[in-house]
Design a protein that fits this description.
The complex is a heterodimer of chains A (115) and B (113). Chain A is built from no helices and 11 strands. With 115 residues, chain A is mainly beta. The relative contact order of chain A is 0.33. In chain B, 0% of the residues lie in helices and 49% in strands. The chains are: A mainly beta (115), B mainly beta (113). At the A-B interface, β5, β9 and β10 of A face β4, β5, β9 and β10 of B.
């Protein structure tokens, strides 16, 4: 069965500092991996996704993530945090089966950005 | 174009009542998903439709929960005999064919008193 673990329910960084949000997954088949962002009172928005091919995936707003199969990880990074990055971030894993896929989300990491 | 919409945005009901939550997916999207998000948690999968049929309903917590999508577009999540533990944000998402990116609606916040 699939599962997702996000290490750290809260992460605080200073503006301009590196952002690192950790995600580990388990999956019985090659997974599809996602990062979503949720701003207050808004729906989930896709940041980036990994399906196949290049393991370093670039997304919107300067974020990127690297799929490391040996570590079963898909950590999210951004070189320099902006105040506008403050939000909740969710890692998700999907397993493909006939007709579509089922997605399991992590519990989320709330990112705080200090001025 | 229009995104996924959900109505109502907020719903307050009393324990034991019946509620219906509606989802309008992006036009042309054949796949539709329902999730439940409790406070401080990630979205929890409930059910996945491919067209009019429920391809996977393994996430529905019990038989009080039911969802339909009779014409392969709009979907309704129905909750009977609501309990206080049903209070959560119910999210709907759609994707082009089930393998593509899911686009989420803003959610319906359900409060059961």
């Amino acid at each position: 069965a699939q599962s997702v673990t996000q290490l750290g329910s809260h992460v605080s960084v200073s503006e301009g500092a590196l952002v690192l949000l950790r995600c580990n997954y388990s999956s019985s088949v090659p997974p599809y991996l996602f990062w979503y962002v949720q701003y207050p009172n808004q729906g989930l928005q896709l940041l980036l996704k990994y399906t196949t091919g290049a393991t370093l995936v670039k997304g919107i707003n300067g974020f990127e993530a690297e799929f490391k199969k040996s570590e079963t990880s898909f950590h999210l990074t951004k070189p320099s945090a902006h105040m506008s990055d403050a939000a909740e971030y969710f890692c998700a894993v999907s397993e493909v089966y006939t007709g579509g896929f089922k997605t399991i989300f992590g519990a989320g990491t709330r990112l705080f950005v200090k001025a | 174009g229009a995104g996924v919409s959900q109505t109502p945005s907020n719903k307050v009901t009393e324990k034991g009542k019946y509620v219906e939550l509606r989802c309008d997916p992006i036009s042309g999207h054949t796949a539709l998903y329902w999730y439940r998000q409790s406070l401080g948690q990630g979205p929890e999968f409930l059910i996945y439709f491919q067209g009019t049929g429920a391809a996977d309903d393994s996430g529905l917590p019990n038989d009080r929960f039911f969802a339909v999508r009779p014409e392969g577009s709009v979907s309704t999540l129905k909750i009977q005999r609501t309990e206080r533990g049903d209070s959560a944000v119910y999210l709907c998402a759609s994707s082009l064919n089930g393998y593509e990116t899911q686009y989420f609606g803003p959610g319906t916040r359900l409060l059961v008193l």
